[in-house]
Amino acid sequence: MLRNLLVAEISTGPNIPLGILLQLWSVGLAIASCPECGDKVYLFRVHGMISMHRCWGFCRTCRVQRQVFLDDFCQKAIQPAVTLLQQHPNEKITYETFEDSEFSWGSGLKKVTRICTLKQPRYQPVDIFTLVRILKPKFQS
Asked: How far apart, in whole angstroms, are the C-alpha atoms of residue 39 and residue 25?
């Protein structure tokens, strides 16, 4: 399961940060029933084609990755994930000004000030193994 969480995603959409998945799972969203044992399958990938209803997750009882079909997966997975991604963007937007030149036939070449929008990640992503290595000592004490 840990390796698969590295690629949590909405197919043809954005990657889903682990924190968003944890928020969804904690309120019973992005969870399906295992076709083998009936226990919970924690979804970490959904297929982008609405008609396919195909999702992938990890069954906590069988301890294997499962492909499941979820009839209402838009309401149980995609819409809540997109809403949380919009509420908690991992972007810091900054603006920089710079001097540039602009040409017009009437005025010739003149200097202008332009504004550039820069989007930078607010938090640097880490893989799950690095995250466990960082957090493990905090929970062992």
From this structure: 14
